[in-house]
User: Which sequence fits this backbone?
């Protein structure tokens, strides 16, 4: 039988086996038609968790036409199939949004961690301009196996958080801000230069990447990695 | 008694308690005299592990004048006191150097992870120009709780490694390369844009930061973070 | 008779004789009216192959109004007249798209190579996150006289391909990706810094340029260049 | 009489009258001979405070050959004549150095504010990786009419300080750090993007500029500006 | 009672007490719904001055639906509640717009300073291409406690103004200009490199930040900061 | 009588006397209303030549509502009043457009030179990919008092032209091209680095600036500058 | 027997078989000791051509201590073993240096092509400021199977050459020039934006990469790639 | 007879005839030996004016060994042969140095204009921080046929000068300044964005280029360009 994705995509169906985490479909740069065909292929593999990331309204419509029950968060541009996340295992993921403007990216990380099998807690509007807000969450931070911090503008929150906890911090710079934020370059550089060790960084606005990494870090220890 | 560090530095002696990891002394930008005074203060706290990073020959001499038995790796610019790493706990850290030119940075990461209490294994010259070299290490990669990858030039190795293992990958771009590497900017961007999820990035040539982060990720699970 | 292109363009009609390859009309930055006038001039020279590149829907309509039978690939923004490519000569061109999002650029290269007289084969979705996909094509790669690789994000595929074949590799960075891809700058730098020798690079999203160059590299050896 | 500075410089001797602050001589890019001639001209105007900034050892020697009693701080690259600062007026200037590596720049700001007539207090090593250090200085911050913050790496301290005080904050990015600090670009961008309003920024390593500005902000209110 | 802002924002209601200046709501990156909910929370605190900055027409509509009497300046993207600025105290703020194209940003600074309690005067079209225009305002400049200068293109006006007055100058680069202005980068760099000391810089187009800072600099001297 | 431009603009009416060239109104960043008011003020000074540059369709409508007979070139975004250029004096200005895509910018330069009183000749599509086209114009180039060259992409034409003539060359980089042209940055750098002396550069797409400068260079020698 | 390169390097000895071209040792970033050990390993494989690139005087001494008869070109930083290039096969490589300052890089390309088995001809000082120089070499260009062009400053020569020949052009930007060449960035961008198709680009100053690529392009056609 | 420059350089001896201006030898990137050989070739053509630019002490020694009477200005890195400039013709060139740190570049421009046959006047230390200094030179500016302005830091002087005179202004950014001057990038951008029309720009620190261009602009009108 002809491969319906021929000339379009080659799904990496063994990824779950090889890496322990399923593939995601990055929608930006694909036509809705292409995304729809991929969704149709996904529909035939109910055993696999699949995420569709960076999905515009048109992308989402194409997916939902095939998988009408899929989970969809329009702000985060995320769809998931099957629509229920698995029962969580491993450690706690804490996701912080420095400001309300960072919320969409933080939600993408939070949801991704959940769909990849982790408990995740989301906290909003704890930027460094009012330190009392983050200081009030130190107990939560110390329970985390990993902390994801989404921040735009000065991107200063990861440095402060890393100074307060033993957990590794994953910084996600966001693209909101005034002109000299240069669409996320400023917080990206801030986070790369965090004066507290324990911060690493993923791409600008890449909530999916941060959530995936957090799910890996907080994964249960296996026989192989004991 | 007057503080001998007054006007120079304020050691963060509680960091071990607060974060579970000791402070390091970043020597670049400090005078050897300042570093020597800090070493003297350290000498009075044998209970704390202290690392001196980015130490030039002059910095090292100033430390060794006070702590003659300190561990010193000149290539990596690293000193440690006490000179023996603690007994390792937690998971395995694997550190890869894409080429021989990335070795100094990779050693800094490898040694840091060890002094912060982890088992660490260092593998050299496994760049993507000859894929058979990294493919021969897949078994080792799958035992790792975290993989650190130091790479300059195209910085492509973290993407490839992340596709081969469930462990999170910490990329450390290095500054060696031809002109358009722009002193590490090129591999930095490559790693931030890794097409395989599971890669996060620390600063250019920051082997210390990578090793510290790896030690956090591979730390034993505690009561609090269970 | 007045030149209908006066004040607009001066076609380089001798280019085929001088260089062995015909001129192409870069439509971006031209008005549809200007492109239409050029198409009219082209219509009078059926002996020449002419490509219209970077053609928007408006540009395409202006060309098709004059040359209704012209070949048109809307995704690749390409038109060709006459609509049939010549019989192929020379060596094989292999064009790879790292992901589905790179497909439009890869198609532009693939079609250009064909219209300039080469056999060309297009392979999709063979990015380095799942190495088995490219490793399964090694036999094809070794038959190629030249390999074109279109890749966005980390742009790592050309390095890997260059390590697998004796053929020269032409990298085409694409502009799709998260923020720190900086509209193609990241894969551009990656490819310029390829750790495997044998990679050269053309402009971001310039599938036409890659296909043209590939056609030149794979051209049959002439008396003059024997 | 011939002007001994002809063809070299034209001192702005009226600046004190026009602006209320004397001229400074920026030594970088001038030859020691040129600086020496300017010092000789200064020697004839004991009524004016003159600062020599960014003075290398050679520049300093040239000044001291003419003005042997001048004040000289080699770390900060600063000389002053006359060597005693005036009696302070106006409000308090507080200068913070995030780390020891920022000390030279912070001292330049601190000394400049003093020589321009302000009380100034210098505090070292209060970076955000250990928040308790800056929180312990809140009382001092609230007495300041202006706070100068010198910080390299992530440059996060000004944001935190601005959130703690009503005084305006002048950020001075410093050039010390790992590669992706890009010689001060990273903290410069951080400070420009401070999420707390009340931060403005001067040039990288420009302690003189920060100190001058602080002296202006904390100047006593005059009849004219009442 | 449930917090209506739960999961969206955490207002920093103590900021006035802590810093002496109220919080502002940065609308860019927030949805109109989120801004509307914040406006509703603000409506219950008539004792606090609140500014909404960077408000699009949609944001403004959401605010005005809840606070129909709020002050609104569409060009500056600013709303204020209560709609009347407080009686002014402290020194004079002078705001200059180098050209008409800089007027929106200058108005944002001017209005912000007024709503934060200062007298403010706005002067338009005094760029350095016709020096007589700024020279005619020297008397006004000398009455200012602080001067805000909004300028795009070459951003040269702050240097000239700083040479004419004892007051500190706050530069606000604007994003209008030809291509090599790079959306405000050019005037930003110009201002950071002002050859006259006394200039500091805020983010591109950040009239709010400039006005806030000016209000702080020109604030009345308090007991604490005497 | 109240100034109808109060709070909007301050026309530099003496510029013609002071500089010998009239003011132009840069429309980008101004509202159509503001431009309309300026046009109304211009209407009262028929003795002055006024150009409106970077005028969108809305700007143009606002001008033409007040000055219905004004000259308008929509492609170049230019309006002029009075609509006839003065009788030319001085030397010849030659304007070259490397490709058709550079024509709008080249026309802006050509028209500006004409309205400022020079003879100007425009030549299109003489890029370096077909050298015979520029070599065929060497005679014309040698009659020019100044040559303006508009070029995007590689921006190589000014170097070649400067090697062929004694006249100074004014390069105008244009923003058309593939991604790594970075909206005109690439040809801007090329022109700044021209290997043939005699090239200077104006801003990206700034045809007005190039035409103005050319008009100055080719101006008739006056008593004063003899 | 213990591997003398253990922990330093892993030579890719099969590269010749796999790719048809031998490995080269990139010396920059390696210590002379490391390079010396690699040379010793090379000494045992006389059947393989080995190049040492980017070799400083210290690197060269370390190689020559082990391989005293190795070929050494100090200007190009290149050593080769065995010292004689193989008998040439395939097509002609023409290498152009735009100016004398580009000669070292051009020589590296020229020598590399020779040691990898091609005929190569080197032509110096044919920059576009004096077009007659390159026009005098058109016959040679038309005999080439590939043309390598090393150029700094404006990097305009590849565009001109590509317009004159059917052969593919490999551009090598060099780092010599005034400040706004940004160490080779300017010619790099010029070449990426070449208005004539047929130009691809390698890294700044990477003569080795250009020569290697040229050797691949001009390689004799094999059974496999026929 | 063998060409002593074979393989090194090809002098463009016809340039004077073709362009009216002689060739200059750019020494940076050439070895002293190469420069010495070129000087020897020059020695045989006493009819040609030759400049050696960007000459280090070693370059200068190599030239002076062959041409001991050559003119040499070590600060400007310039040598000229024959050592006397020709009798001046054409209009006046005025060269301004904004500060003493810009003097070397300004002198290079001033000397170049003189050796290419123009009257030239050099004025030092007239930066915009003290406007009275440039305002005192308005009469001189109005006599100039062209004004060259060398400025670092904010690079604001050309905008101000262009507003004061009808003559074209050639801006030369210099590389002296604090960190965010980015080695001349800041003043380069400022000058490209000059708000007053009439400014064009040459490369950073390129005094030679500015002087050459000024000599062309101020050249006497010829029969051909009348």
Assistant:
């Amino acid at each position: 039988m002809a491969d319906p994705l021929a000339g379009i995509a080659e799904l990496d169906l063994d990824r779950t086996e090889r890496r322990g985490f399923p593939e995601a479909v990055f929608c930006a740069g694909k036509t809705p038609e292409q995304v729809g065909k991929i969704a149709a292929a996904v529909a035939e593999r109910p055993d696999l968790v699949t995420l569709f990331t960076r999905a515009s309204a048109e992308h989402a419509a194409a997916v939902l036409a095939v998988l009408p029950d899929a989970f969809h968060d329009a702000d985060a541009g995320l769809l998931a199939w099957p629509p229920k996340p698995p029962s969580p295992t491993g450690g706690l993921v804490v996701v912080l949004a420095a400001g309300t403007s960072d919320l969409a990216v933080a939600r993408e990380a939070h949801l991704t961690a959940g769909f990849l099998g982790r408990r995740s807690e989301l906290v909003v509007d704890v930027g460094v301009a009012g330190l009392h807000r983050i200081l009030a969450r130190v107990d939560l931070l110390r329970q985390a196996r990993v902390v994801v911090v989404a921040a735009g503008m000065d991107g200063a929150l990861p440095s402060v958080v890393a100074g307060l906890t033993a957990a590794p911090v994953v910084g996600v710079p966001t693209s909101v801000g005034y002109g000299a934020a240069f669409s996320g370059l400023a917080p990206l550089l801030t986070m790369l230069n965090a004066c507290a060790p324990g911060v690493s960084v993923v791409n600008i606005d890449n909530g999916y990447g941060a959530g995936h990494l957090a799910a890996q870090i907080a994964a249960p220890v296996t026989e192989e990695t004991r």
Chain C has a mean pLDDT of 93. The beta strands of chain C are 24-26, 50-53, 71-73, 78-81, 92-97, 119-124, 146-151, 169-173, 199-201.
